[in-house]
Amino acid sequence: MPKVVALPGDGIGKEVTDAAVAVLKEVAPDVTIQELLIGGAAVDAAGVPFPGEVEAAVTTADAVLLGTVGGPRYDTLPRELRPERGLLALRKALGVYANIRPVRVVPGLEHLSPLRPEKARGVDVLIVRELLGGLYFDSNRGRSGERAHNTMSYTVPEIDRIARIAFWAAEQRRGHVTSVDKANVLEVSELWRETVTKVHEEKYRHVTLRHELVDSAAMLLVSNPTRYDVILTENLFGDILSDLAAVLPGSLGLMPSASLGDGPGLFEPIHGSAPDIAGQGVANPAAAILSVGMLLRHGLKRSGAANNVDAAVSLALRSHPTRDIGGTASTQAFADAVLQALSTTNVSA
Ligand SMILES: NC(=O)C1=CN([C@@H]2O[C@H](COP(=O)(O)OP(=O)(O)OC[C@H]3O[C@@H](n4cnc5c(N)ncnc54)[C@H](O)[C@@H]3O)[C@@H](O)[C@H]2O)C=CC1
Ligand SMILES: CC(C)CC(=O)C(=O)O
Ligand SMILES: [Mg+2]
Protein backbone atom coordinates (compact mmCIF):
# COMPACT_ATOMS: atom_id res chain seq x y z
CA MET A 1 0.00 0.00 0.00
CA PRO A 2 1.60 3.33 -1.03
CA LYS A 3 2.27 5.81 1.77
CA VAL A 4 1.90 9.57 1.33
CA VAL A 5 3.00 11.99 4.04
CA ALA A 6 0.91 15.18 4.12
CA LEU A 7 2.47 18.28 5.69
CA PRO A 8 -0.16 21.06 5.80
CA GLY A 9 2.16 23.64 7.41
CA ASP A 10 0.96 27.17 8.15
CA GLY A 11 -1.62 29.78 7.12
CA ILE A 12 -3.74 28.66 4.16
CA GLY A 13 -1.53 25.55 3.93
CA LYS A 14 -3.90 23.71 6.26
CA GLU A 15 -7.01 24.87 4.36
CA VAL A 16 -5.79 23.91 0.88
CA THR A 17 -4.15 20.67 2.06
CA ASP A 18 -7.41 19.51 3.69
CA ALA A 19 -9.07 19.97 0.29
CA ALA A 20 -6.20 18.21 -1.52
CA VAL A 21 -6.18 15.27 0.89
CA ALA A 22 -9.96 14.80 0.42
CA VAL A 23 -9.36 14.55 -3.33
CA LEU A 24 -6.45 12.13 -2.89
CA LYS A 25 -8.62 9.91 -0.69
CA GLU A 26 -11.37 9.94 -3.31
CA VAL A 27 -9.17 8.95 -6.27
CA ALA A 28 -6.67 6.69 -4.45
CA PRO A 29 -8.52 5.10 -1.50
CA ASP A 30 -5.80 2.46 -1.09
CA VAL A 31 -3.14 5.07 -0.24
CA THR A 32 -2.19 5.47 3.43
CA ILE A 33 -1.95 9.14 4.39
CA GLN A 34 0.09 10.20 7.40
CA GLU A 35 -0.32 13.85 8.45
CA LEU A 36 2.57 15.57 10.27
CA LEU A 37 3.65 19.09 11.23
CA ILE A 38 6.18 21.29 9.45
CA GLY A 39 7.14 24.97 9.49
CA GLY A 40 5.70 27.29 12.12
CA ALA A 41 3.26 24.60 13.29
CA ALA A 42 6.24 22.34 14.05
CA VAL A 43 8.09 25.18 15.79
CA ASP A 44 5.05 25.68 18.03
CA ALA A 45 4.76 21.97 18.82
CA ALA A 46 8.35 20.77 18.82
CA GLY A 47 10.60 23.84 18.80
CA VAL A 48 12.05 23.21 15.31
CA PRO A 49 10.59 23.68 11.80
CA PHE A 50 11.57 20.22 10.48
CA PRO A 51 11.59 17.68 13.33
CA GLY A 52 13.61 14.45 13.09
CA GLU A 53 10.52 12.22 13.06
CA VAL A 54 9.15 14.15 10.08
CA GLU A 55 12.43 13.64 8.24
CA ALA A 56 12.27 9.91 9.00
CA ALA A 57 8.67 9.70 7.75
CA VAL A 58 9.15 11.64 4.50
CA THR A 59 12.31 9.84 3.44
CA THR A 60 10.53 6.47 3.73
CA ALA A 61 7.28 7.60 2.05
CA ASP A 62 6.29 7.06 -1.58
CA ALA A 63 5.48 10.76 -1.98
CA VAL A 64 5.07 13.90 0.09
CA LEU A 65 2.25 16.45 -0.18
CA LEU A 66 3.09 19.85 1.27
CA GLY A 67 0.90 22.86 2.01
CA THR A 68 2.71 26.09 2.78
CA VAL A 69 4.94 27.40 5.55
CA GLY A 70 5.64 30.76 7.16
CA GLY A 71 3.79 33.73 8.50
CA PRO A 72 4.30 37.02 10.31
CA ARG A 73 4.27 35.30 13.71
CA TYR A 74 7.52 33.54 12.84
CA ASP A 75 9.33 36.35 11.03
CA THR A 76 11.30 37.41 14.11
CA LEU A 77 12.62 33.94 14.96
CA PRO A 78 16.35 33.29 14.51
CA ARG A 79 16.87 32.46 10.84
CA GLU A 80 17.65 28.78 11.45
CA LEU A 81 14.32 28.32 13.26
CA ARG A 82 12.20 30.02 10.61
CA PRO A 83 9.55 27.93 8.86
CA GLU A 84 11.13 28.62 5.45
CA ARG A 85 14.35 26.95 6.67
CA GLY A 86 12.24 23.89 7.49
CA LEU A 87 11.02 23.80 3.90
CA LEU A 88 14.56 24.10 2.52
CA ALA A 89 15.69 21.31 4.86
CA LEU A 90 12.80 19.13 3.65
CA ARG A 91 13.80 19.67 0.00
CA LYS A 92 17.42 18.89 0.85
CA ALA A 93 16.52 15.76 2.85
CA LEU A 94 14.51 14.43 -0.10
CA GLY A 95 17.23 15.40 -2.61
CA VAL A 96 14.61 16.95 -4.89
CA TYR A 97 16.77 19.02 -7.22
CA ALA A 98 14.25 19.40 -10.06
CA ASN A 99 11.28 21.67 -9.41
CA ILE A 100 8.71 21.36 -12.20
CA ARG A 101 6.15 24.15 -12.38
CA PRO A 102 3.57 23.89 -15.17
CA VAL A 103 1.88 27.11 -16.29
CA ARG A 104 -1.16 26.37 -18.37
CA VAL A 105 -4.13 28.39 -19.52
CA VAL A 106 -6.74 25.67 -19.92
CA PRO A 107 -8.78 26.08 -23.14
CA GLY A 108 -12.04 27.76 -22.18
CA LEU A 109 -10.53 29.37 -19.06
CA GLU A 110 -8.80 32.29 -20.82
CA HIS A 111 -11.22 34.66 -19.08
CA LEU A 112 -9.46 33.99 -15.74
CA SER A 113 -6.27 35.61 -17.09
CA PRO A 114 -5.76 39.37 -16.86
CA LEU A 115 -4.18 39.13 -20.32
CA ARG A 116 -6.30 39.68 -23.41
CA PRO A 117 -7.81 36.31 -24.46
CA GLU A 118 -5.75 36.23 -27.67
CA LYS A 119 -2.55 36.57 -25.59
CA ALA A 120 -3.59 34.03 -22.95
CA ARG A 121 -4.89 31.42 -25.39
CA GLY A 122 -2.60 28.42 -25.75
CA VAL A 123 -0.17 29.32 -22.96
CA ASP A 124 1.55 26.09 -21.93
CA VAL A 125 4.93 26.59 -20.29
CA LEU A 126 6.91 24.22 -18.10
CA ILE A 127 9.32 25.93 -15.72
CA VAL A 128 12.17 23.62 -14.72
CA ARG A 129 13.84 25.24 -11.73
CA GLU A 130 17.01 24.00 -10.04
CA LEU A 131 15.95 23.56 -6.41
CA LEU A 132 18.93 22.63 -4.24
CA GLY A 133 21.62 25.12 -5.20
CA GLY A 134 22.28 28.81 -5.65
CA LEU A 135 21.66 31.57 -3.15
CA TYR A 136 19.19 29.66 -0.98
CA PHE A 137 21.63 26.92 -0.02
CA ASP A 138 25.21 28.14 -0.22
CA SER A 139 26.89 28.00 3.19
CA ASN A 140 28.96 31.08 2.33
CA ARG A 141 26.44 33.47 3.84
CA GLY A 142 26.08 35.64 6.87
CA ARG A 143 25.85 39.01 8.53
CA SER A 144 28.41 41.02 10.36
CA GLY A 145 27.65 44.52 11.54
CA GLU A 146 26.52 46.61 8.62
CA ARG A 147 27.40 44.00 6.02
CA ALA A 148 25.58 40.85 4.87
CA HIS A 149 26.25 38.39 2.08
CA ASN A 150 24.84 35.38 0.26
CA THR A 151 26.54 33.46 -2.51
CA MET A 152 25.24 32.13 -5.78
CA SER A 153 27.43 29.21 -6.75
CA TYR A 154 26.81 26.21 -8.99
CA THR A 155 28.94 23.24 -10.01
CA VAL A 156 28.93 21.61 -13.44
CA PRO A 157 27.24 18.40 -12.14
CA GLU A 158 24.44 20.44 -10.54
CA ILE A 159 23.77 22.29 -13.80
CA ASP A 160 24.21 19.20 -15.94
CA ARG A 161 21.57 17.14 -14.11
CA ILE A 162 18.87 19.83 -14.17
CA ALA A 163 19.62 20.61 -17.84
CA ARG A 164 19.03 16.94 -18.70
CA ILE A 165 15.62 17.08 -16.99
CA ALA A 166 14.66 20.17 -19.03
CA PHE A 167 15.75 18.64 -22.35
CA TRP A 168 14.02 15.37 -21.48
CA ALA A 169 10.81 17.27 -20.64
CA ALA A 170 11.02 19.22 -23.91
CA GLU A 171 11.30 15.95 -25.82
CA GLN A 172 7.87 14.96 -24.44
CA ARG A 173 6.45 18.41 -25.31
CA ARG A 174 7.06 20.85 -28.17
CA GLY A 175 10.83 20.37 -28.28
CA HIS A 176 12.06 23.78 -27.22
CA VAL A 177 14.16 24.81 -24.19
CA THR A 178 14.84 28.40 -23.17
CA SER A 179 17.65 28.59 -20.62
CA VAL A 180 17.38 31.74 -18.53
CA ASP A 181 20.42 33.27 -16.83
CA LYS A 182 22.31 36.53 -16.31
CA ALA A 183 25.43 35.63 -18.29
CA ASN A 184 26.12 39.26 -19.25
CA VAL A 185 27.06 39.95 -15.61
CA LEU A 186 27.51 36.78 -13.52
CA GLU A 187 30.30 34.19 -13.75
CA VAL A 188 27.93 31.59 -12.35
CA SER A 189 25.62 32.21 -15.32
CA GLU A 190 28.56 31.87 -17.72
CA LEU A 191 29.17 28.38 -16.34
CA TRP A 192 25.42 27.70 -16.46
CA ARG A 193 25.27 28.67 -20.16
CA GLU A 194 28.39 26.67 -21.11
CA THR A 195 27.16 23.56 -19.31
CA VAL A 196 23.64 23.72 -20.75
CA THR A 197 25.10 24.18 -24.24
CA LYS A 198 27.38 21.17 -23.74
CA VAL A 199 24.50 18.91 -22.66
CA HIS A 200 22.52 20.14 -25.66
CA GLU A 201 25.33 19.44 -28.12
CA GLU A 202 26.15 16.04 -26.66
CA LYS A 203 22.68 14.53 -26.53
CA TYR A 204 19.79 16.84 -27.38
CA ARG A 205 20.49 18.49 -30.74
CA HIS A 206 16.97 17.53 -31.85
CA VAL A 207 15.59 19.89 -29.18
CA THR A 208 16.03 23.59 -29.90
CA LEU A 209 17.89 25.66 -27.31
CA ARG A 210 17.75 29.41 -26.81
CA HIS A 211 19.52 31.38 -24.08
CA GLU A 212 17.86 34.46 -22.62
CA LEU A 213 18.79 36.98 -19.96
CA VAL A 214 16.49 36.92 -16.98
CA ASP A 215 15.46 40.58 -17.02
CA SER A 216 14.17 40.65 -20.59
CA ALA A 217 12.84 37.08 -20.25
CA ALA A 218 10.60 38.33 -17.43
CA MET A 219 9.15 40.92 -19.79
CA LEU A 220 8.69 38.45 -22.66
CA LEU A 221 7.09 35.85 -20.40
CA VAL A 222 4.21 38.23 -19.80
CA SER A 223 4.05 40.04 -23.14
CA ASN A 224 4.52 36.99 -25.37
CA PRO A 225 4.08 33.85 -23.25
CA THR A 226 3.40 31.44 -26.10
CA ARG A 227 7.03 31.81 -27.27
CA TYR A 228 8.00 29.52 -24.36
CA ASP A 229 7.82 25.74 -24.09
CA VAL A 230 10.30 24.66 -21.36
CA ILE A 231 12.10 27.31 -19.31
CA LEU A 232 15.23 26.06 -17.57
CA THR A 233 16.69 28.21 -14.82
CA GLU A 234 18.43 28.34 -11.45
CA ASN A 235 16.82 28.48 -8.02
CA LEU A 236 16.20 32.18 -7.34
CA PHE A 237 15.36 33.15 -10.93
CA GLY A 238 12.94 30.21 -11.09
CA ASP A 239 11.28 31.21 -7.84
CA ILE A 240 10.64 34.73 -9.10
CA LEU A 241 9.72 33.86 -12.69
CA SER A 242 7.20 31.23 -11.60
CA ASP A 243 5.27 33.64 -9.35
CA LEU A 244 5.32 36.09 -12.26
CA ALA A 245 4.05 33.33 -14.56
CA ALA A 246 1.10 32.77 -12.21
CA VAL A 247 -0.36 35.93 -13.73
CA LEU A 248 -0.85 34.04 -17.00
CA PRO A 249 -3.52 31.53 -15.84
CA GLY A 250 -4.84 34.19 -13.45
CA SER A 251 -3.74 33.39 -9.89
CA LEU A 252 -1.05 31.93 -7.69
CA GLY A 253 -3.84 29.63 -6.54
CA LEU A 254 -3.70 27.85 -9.91
CA MET A 255 -0.02 26.89 -9.86
CA PRO A 256 0.98 23.39 -8.70
CA SER A 257 4.46 21.91 -8.61
CA ALA A 258 6.42 18.70 -8.39
CA SER A 259 9.93 18.51 -6.97
CA LEU A 260 11.76 15.42 -8.09
CA GLY A 261 15.04 13.70 -7.32
CA ASP A 262 16.10 10.10 -6.95
CA GLY A 263 13.80 9.30 -3.98
CA PRO A 264 10.26 10.30 -2.97
CA GLY A 265 8.92 13.36 -4.77
CA LEU A 266 7.54 16.46 -3.07
CA PHE A 267 4.31 17.99 -4.38
CA GLU A 268 3.17 21.47 -3.37
CA PRO A 269 1.36 24.57 -4.57
CA ILE A 270 3.87 27.29 -5.45
CA HIS A 271 2.17 29.94 -3.36
CA GLY A 272 2.90 30.86 0.24
CA SER A 273 0.82 30.84 3.40
CA ALA A 274 -1.13 33.98 2.38
CA PRO A 275 -1.47 35.58 5.83
CA ASP A 276 -3.80 38.21 4.35
CA ILE A 277 -6.54 35.62 3.75
CA ALA A 278 -5.60 32.78 6.12
CA GLY A 279 -8.42 31.52 8.34
CA GLN A 280 -11.18 32.98 6.15
CA GLY A 281 -11.92 29.82 4.15
CA VAL A 282 -11.52 31.65 0.83
CA ALA A 283 -8.14 30.38 -0.42
CA ASN A 284 -8.15 28.76 -3.83
CA PRO A 285 -7.24 25.09 -3.31
CA ALA A 286 -6.83 24.41 -7.06
CA ALA A 287 -3.00 24.58 -6.91
CA ALA A 288 -2.92 22.11 -4.03
CA ILE A 289 -5.40 19.78 -5.75
CA LEU A 290 -3.47 20.00 -9.05
CA SER A 291 -0.38 19.11 -6.99
CA VAL A 292 -2.22 15.92 -6.03
CA GLY A 293 -2.58 15.36 -9.78
CA MET A 294 1.19 15.71 -10.16
CA LEU A 295 1.70 13.38 -7.18
CA LEU A 296 -0.48 10.76 -8.83
CA ARG A 297 1.28 11.17 -12.20
CA HIS A 298 4.92 11.45 -11.11
CA GLY A 299 4.93 9.97 -7.61
CA LEU A 300 2.55 7.03 -7.88
CA LYS A 301 2.60 6.55 -11.69
CA ARG A 302 -1.20 6.72 -11.91
CA SER A 303 -1.72 8.93 -14.94
CA GLY A 304 -5.39 8.00 -15.39
CA ALA A 305 -6.30 9.24 -11.92
CA ALA A 306 -4.11 12.32 -12.48
CA ASN A 307 -5.97 13.18 -15.69
CA ASN A 308 -9.29 12.84 -13.85
CA VAL A 309 -8.14 15.24 -11.13
CA ASP A 310 -6.97 17.81 -13.71
CA ALA A 311 -10.26 17.58 -15.58
CA ALA A 312 -12.33 17.86 -12.39
CA VAL A 313 -10.40 20.99 -11.37
CA SER A 314 -11.10 22.57 -14.78
CA LEU A 315 -14.81 21.92 -14.33
CA ALA A 316 -14.81 23.36 -10.81
CA LEU A 317 -12.97 26.47 -12.01
CA ARG A 318 -15.83 27.08 -14.41
CA SER A 319 -18.66 26.29 -11.98
CA HIS A 320 -17.25 27.45 -8.61
CA PRO A 321 -14.54 30.13 -9.07
CA THR A 322 -12.95 31.34 -5.83
CA ARG A 323 -12.39 34.99 -4.89
CA ASP A 324 -8.86 35.31 -6.37
CA ILE A 325 -10.27 34.55 -9.83
CA GLY A 326 -13.32 36.75 -9.57
CA GLY A 327 -15.81 34.35 -7.99
CA THR A 328 -17.37 33.86 -4.59
CA ALA A 329 -16.89 30.13 -3.90
CA SER A 330 -15.26 29.17 -0.62
CA THR A 331 -12.34 26.75 -0.37
CA GLN A 332 -14.77 24.07 0.78
CA ALA A 333 -17.28 24.76 -2.01
CA PHE A 334 -14.54 24.50 -4.62
CA ALA A 335 -13.27 21.24 -3.13
CA ASP A 336 -16.82 19.85 -3.03
CA ALA A 337 -17.24 20.78 -6.71
CA VAL A 338 -14.06 18.87 -7.57
CA LEU A 339 -15.25 15.82 -5.60
CA GLN A 340 -18.64 16.05 -7.28
CA ALA A 341 -17.01 16.20 -10.74
CA LEU A 342 -14.84 13.20 -9.86
CA SER A 343 -17.86 11.20 -8.80
CA THR A 344 -19.34 11.50 -12.29
CA THR A 345 -17.78 9.08 -14.73
CA ASN A 346 -16.17 10.38 -17.94
CA VAL A 347 -14.75 13.56 -16.47
CA SER A 348 -13.04 15.44 -19.28
CA ALA A 349 -11.50 18.92 -19.47
N1 LIG B 1 6.28 27.12 -0.35
C1 LIG B 1 5.98 27.88 0.70
O1 LIG B 1 5.59 27.37 1.74
C2 LIG B 1 6.11 29.35 0.58
C3 LIG B 1 5.99 30.11 1.71
N2 LIG B 1 6.01 31.48 1.61
C4 LIG B 1 5.78 32.22 2.85
O2 LIG B 1 4.41 32.66 2.85
C5 LIG B 1 4.30 33.88 3.57
C6 LIG B 1 3.54 34.91 2.76
O3 LIG B 1 4.27 35.26 1.60
P1 LIG B 1 3.73 36.21 0.45
O4 LIG B 1 4.88 36.88 -0.14
O5 LIG B 1 2.59 37.00 0.96
O6 LIG B 1 3.19 35.20 -0.71
P2 LIG B 1 1.86 34.36 -0.80
O7 LIG B 1 2.04 33.44 -1.96
O8 LIG B 1 1.54 33.72 0.49
O9 LIG B 1 0.70 35.41 -1.13
C7 LIG B 1 0.79 36.36 -2.19
C8 LIG B 1 -0.62 36.86 -2.56
O10 LIG B 1 -1.29 35.81 -3.27
C9 LIG B 1 -2.48 35.45 -2.60
N3 LIG B 1 -2.61 33.99 -2.67
C10 LIG B 1 -1.61 33.08 -2.53
N4 LIG B 1 -2.10 31.84 -2.62
C11 LIG B 1 -3.42 31.96 -2.80
C12 LIG B 1 -4.48 31.02 -2.96
N5 LIG B 1 -4.28 29.70 -2.95
N6 LIG B 1 -5.74 31.49 -3.13
C13 LIG B 1 -5.97 32.80 -3.17
N7 LIG B 1 -5.02 33.75 -3.04
C14 LIG B 1 -3.75 33.33 -2.85
C15 LIG B 1 -2.32 35.93 -1.18
O11 LIG B 1 -3.57 36.14 -0.57
C16 LIG B 1 -1.47 37.18 -1.36
O12 LIG B 1 -2.31 38.28 -1.65
C17 LIG B 1 5.73 34.30 3.93
O13 LIG B 1 5.94 33.90 5.26
C18 LIG B 1 6.60 33.48 2.98
O14 LIG B 1 7.87 33.23 3.47
C19 LIG B 1 6.13 32.11 0.41
C20 LIG B 1 6.26 31.37 -0.74
C21 LIG B 1 6.31 29.94 -0.75
C1 LIG C 1 9.61 29.94 0.81
C2 LIG C 1 10.85 29.76 0.01
C3 LIG C 1 11.83 28.88 0.76
C4 LIG C 1 10.72 29.22 -1.36
C5 LIG C 1 9.72 29.72 -2.32
O1 LIG C 1 9.20 30.82 -2.32
C6 LIG C 1 9.39 28.78 -3.37
O2 LIG C 1 9.98 27.71 -3.46
O3 LIG C 1 8.51 29.09 -4.18
MG1 LIG D 1 8.22 31.18 -4.29
UniProtKB/TrEMBL annotation:
Cofactor binding description: Binds 1 Mg(2+) or Mn(2+) ion per subunit.
Pathway(s) served: Amino-acid biosynthesis; L-leucine biosynthesis; L-leucine from 3-methyl-2-oxobutanoate: step 3/4
Cofactor(s) the protein requires to work: Mn(2+); Mg(2+)
InterPro entries: IsoCit/isopropylmalate_DH_CS, IsoPropMal-DH-like_dom, Isopropylmalate_DH
GO molecular function, one term: 3-isopropylmalate dehydrogenase activity
Keyword set includes Ligase: no
PANTHER family according to UniProt: 3-ISOPROPYLMALATE DEHYDROGENASE
Protein name: 3-isopropylmalate dehydrogenase
Taxonomic source organism: Deinococcus yavapaiensis KR-236
